[in-house]
Amino acid sequence: MFSQYMEELEKNPYSVEDFVEKLFWRTNTNCENFDPELLTETFNNTIKDLKILQERQQRKCEKLEAALSEEQKIHARDIEKLLERHSISVECFHNLDEKINSVAGKIIHLGEQLENVNTPRTRTAEALKLLNHMGEFLVQGPVVNDIFTNKANLLEAADIIQKLYLVAQDLPADKFGAAKKKIESKYDEVERNLIEEFARAQTEENIDKMKELAKIMSQFKGYNQCVDVYIEQSQATSYRSGKDVFESIAPLCRQHYGIIKQVFSSPDQVMSKFILNIYQLRIHQFVATKLADDSKDDYKFLKTLHYLYLRTMKLSNDLSEFIKDSNDDLLSKLTQNMFAKHLANYIEIELRCFDSICSMEVKKFYDSKNHQKKQTERFQDLKRDMQAIISARTNINIVQIDNYGGETFLSEELAINLLQESAAAFERCSVLSKEADTPTNIIKIADILLKYLLTEHCDYAVDLGIQSIPIADTKSAPQIYFFDVVQKTNTIVHLLEKTYNASIMPYVISTSKYSDCMHKKRFCMDSIENKLDNGLDRSLNAICNWVKIYLQNEQKKTDFKPETDIDTVASSACSAVCNYINSCIAQIKKTIDGDNLSDVLQELGIRFHRVIYEHLLQYQYNTLGAMVAICDVNEYRKCVRKLGDSLVSQLFDILHALCNLLLVKHENLQEVCNGETLNYLDKTVVLNFIQLRSDFKIIKPLTASLKTY
């Protein structure tokens, strides 16, 4: 039992409630016969057991604490012994350190005494040796000492002649003139031999010998010649064969930078000179040759200039790791000096080239269409409107309209070509222009793009599209191609907007040129937008005018006032009109999108409603005719549902309700007029429709009461 208690008490987490609950269920296994006395006895026994268990655990804890206390005392004694031994070791270490320092001081003192004795002796020996060699130069005739005549002793000869040269500088010329000349001559000879030996060692890739010779040459006047020899030999055959010189330069510099650091005492200066030689000779010559070859073709010249400038800038960035911070603008200056002549008149060439390309692309497009651009006549719209009025009143068609076979004279391919060329020009401009001139130059290029893409192409095509909108006649339904003009114009404008956002805005948005740039674009856009609005207005007028004329000519009076029984179905004129309107709606949905689509469809629906409303007011209706009119209006309602405009649908619902006034019994007119649909209409509109009933004269007295609704 104790082990069971221990198992439960050692659970983590321990819960008193769970312990009591389990004890309860072990005591009362049968819930139906609850025995409180048994439960009380069980609880009392458990409490006794727990007390016994507590006493046992308490005794065990006391034993463990006593053992722990004893163990602590043992460890404390061990630590005291260790500390005592440690203090003895530290004291011995300090004593030993003092003895070592004392001996070291005596040794240093002895070394200094020996050096003080040896240094003068060595200097005296060197001075004596130098005087002996000086004596050889004071004697007339050539120097025959093996040190100066045997190339195997070149390094020793270099050391001696360099010191003699320095000494000779202080000798008076009147007494030692001949000796000084002999020393200078031998100095130059040894210097040449050292340079030749350095070049030979470089050819043999003997780094140690090169380093030794460079160290000696650093004391000579011709040290720079040694550096020049290294640079010339390194760059003489190291360029890869091929047209692109840039590919080999970075690996070449990386390879020789490691050698230069090993050989020369001032590697950064040597490396700067190494790179300077590459830029001023190899790259400059390569750039000049390439640009001279393409100078007669502006387009090739610009592409080559842009490519070479970018490659040179990338190369400068790659080589910047070899340039010290104190000279970090060296590569930038070298690049600017190299391209300065070509960048001075860059923008003039860019503008001339881009203008030429745009002009050629536009001309090529119109040539492919066999079209000669026309000058837009002044007052063209007024002239056309007057001709239309005369034609309508005289029934003589004097309006000559050319729809060019449905050709819109708008090309997305042409627009894409112009925009691609402009994007390339903007990219070149951002790279090749000075930072202060970039916004101005970008706008100059954008002006040319607006001129050819919007003014010369889109604006001109919209003018032609407006002129090709037909005048309605009864011979055939007008084919409206202007919607295609709207679609293609919107596509081109969207492409232009993308180009502006990607290639123009980043360079002008935070500058003073931003407003000027947006004003020029908005001016061109507004011109085209106004013309598109005008064209859409004329197109909708052409559609609705044809419907009006067609119904006037094809709708018979007997359709709405038959003298005999007829089938109450929509009239043939209505069916023809609905078919035509459906085709127009489909064409508009295909060519126009967004908010423009809903606006155009709503306007078409409103104008179409006006035509039908005015058309129905021209007839008189008997009962059968009213049913035909209602059938016609139902067909019109089905037709305009495709517009998806609630206002237009509401207008035709009201028109349908007005047509019901032609059919209802006269005693129900008051009730119908007070209905939800007609209640808010002007009473004049309702009375006008009631007057179209064939029995209006009979029911006229009854209509007086309608004035009160």
Number of helices: 25
Shape: flat
State the end-to-end CA separation: 101 Å
Helix and strand pattern: HHHHHHHHHHHHHHHHHHHHHHHHH
Number of strands: 0
Largest sheet: none
Pfam families: Sec10_HB, Sec10_N
GO biological process, one term: Golgi to plasma membrane transport
Protein name: Exocyst complex component 5
Keywords: Coiled coil, Exocytosis, Transport
Describe the structure.
- With 709 residues, the protein is an all-alpha fold.
- It contains 25 helices and no strands.
- The protein has helices at 2-9, 16-27, 36-138, 146-149, 154-168, 173-203, 207-217, 223-236, 246-263, 267-293, 298-319, 330-343, 346-368, 380-394, 412-432, 438-467, 482-508, 514-554, 572-591, 594-616, 623-641, 646-660, 669-673, 683-690, 696-703.
- Helix 13 runs parallel beside helix 16 and helix 17 (482-508) packs antiparallel against helix 18.
- The mean pLDDT is 82.
